Amino acid sequence: MTRTLTIFEADVLRYRAQGYRDHEIARALPAGTTERDVRNAVLRAVRALGARTLDQAIQIQIHNQSNPNGDQP
Predict the structure, then answer these.
(1) Within a 10 A sphere around the Cβ of 26, how many other Cβ atoms?
(2) 3-state secondary structure 8-62
(3) pLDDT at 73 over 90
């Protein structure tokens, strides 16, 4: 299953790609965001992108952002 990520999911992946930890991401996002929200967003993003791991999801998201029309390399 693949779908476009929500803005929140994409933001969480971007922070994770930069090396931030869940508690740091939660503090950087809108007030009221918890570490659990961040962990759930990671899981949803991995599933949404059809990835098996967080690293794979990040790579897919980077590819999708650099090829918004789905062009193959």
Answers:
(1) 20
(2) HHHHHHHHHHCCCCHHHHHHHCCCCCCHHHHHHHHHHHHHHCCCCCHHHHHHHHH
(3) no
> How many CB atoms are closer than 10 A to CB 17?
15
Burial of 8 (0-12, 13-18, 19+ CB in 10 A): middle
Cβ–Cβ under 8 Å, residues 25 and 38: yes
Minimal CA–CA distance to 3: which of 35, 39, 46? Answer: 46
Give the pLDDT confidence of 15-69 residue by residue, as tens digits.
999 999 999 999 999 999 999 999 999 999 999 999 999 999 999 999 988 887 7
Alpha-carbon dihedral sign for residues 11, 13, 18, 22:
positive
Looking at residue 3, its pLDDT comes to: 86
